[in-house]
């Protein structure tokens, strides 16, 4: 993760995960916190799966980004479509506006995470580290070291 955009997507994903975790815990004890989980069991499963996927997306694993996208679309997709159609018909209750906004943010974040991992040019093509490649992959340095080591010109007193 060398790009600033990759770090931003990972930070937003983690903050969204923490926000959903707080909201789910508060909803389970009886308090409502800006959004209402549509299915409590699936929300808890999604929270665990999301945390694992975020950890692997930081390591630039494509499978984690795909699982993250599929899980979020499976959970948020149907409810978002229903809420969005109610929004267009002006029949969506006022307390569901924030839930719809968070569903949209969850779907958009999953798409952004997948495209970030897919479009990362250095993910598979050049898995290198610039801090150490000057030493390990520099043939000129090896030649200079070999020539210098072969001469063995030591001063004798």
Summarize the structure.
The protein has 157 residues and is mostly helical. Helices cover 72% and strands 0% of the residues.
What does this structure look like?
This protein has one domain (4-151). Helices cover 72% and strands 0% of the residues. The chain has 6 helices and no strands. The chain has helices spanning 4-28, 40-58, 62-88, 97-118, 130-136, 139-151. α3 packs antiparallel against α4. The longest helix is centred in the middle third of the chain and has 27 residues, at 62-88. The mean pLDDT is 83.
Main sheet overview: none
Distance between termini? Answer: 55 Å
Low-confidence stretches: none
What's the count of strands?
0
- Please, what is the average pLDDT? 83
Give the C-alpha Rg: 25 Å
Globally, the shape reads: elongated
Strand content: under 5%
Q: Compute the number of structural domains.
A: 1
Annotation field: number of helices? 6
One letter per element, helices H and strands E, the order comes to HHHHHH
Structural class: mainly alpha
Helix fraction, binned, reads over 70%
Topology, pairings included?
Elements: H1 4-28, H2 40-58, H3 62-88, H4 97-118, H5 130-136, H6 139-151
